[in-house]
């Protein structure tokens, strides 16, 4: 039972890390956007053209109250507890 729990926590943690750190970018003639996080981005960088030729206005935002941050924190906790279960299992065997 402990080994199955360890594997379920590991799988959930890895999926959560993939979702929380997923990258997305868009570009076009009116600027570009790069974001981190799924289902809603917690970090966003945007570049828009400036009135000065060849220059861009850059803007970055970090939002800590997003679902993707919650998924990221939960996945780190799941991986931590999976590692603790795995270590405890190895100590009991020896």
Task: Map the helices and strands.
Layout: H1 2-20, E1 23-28, E2 31-36, E3 43-49, E4 56-62, H2 67-93
What does this structure look like?
This protein is an alpha+beta fold. It has helices at 2-20, 67-93; strands at 23-28, 31-36, 43-49, 56-62. The chain has a 4-stranded antiparallel sheet with strand order 1-2-3-4, with no helix packed on it. β1 and β2 (31-36) form a beta hairpin. α1 packs antiparallel against α2. The longest helix has 27 residues, at 67-93.
Number of helices, where a helix is a run of at least 4 consecutive DSSP H or I residues: 2
What is the number of beta strands? 4
Major sheet attributes: 4 strands, antiparallel
| Mean residue pLDDT | 88
Helix and strand run: HEEEEH
Choose one word for the global shape: rod-shaped
Report low-confidence residues grouped into runs of 5 or more: none
Derived structural class = alpha+beta
- Report helical residue fraction: 40-55%
Strand arrangement, largest sheet? 1-2-3-4
How much of the residues is beta strand, in percent? 25-35%
Q: Measured on Cα atoms, how large is the radius of gyration?
A: 20 Å
Separation of the first and last Cα atoms = 18 Å
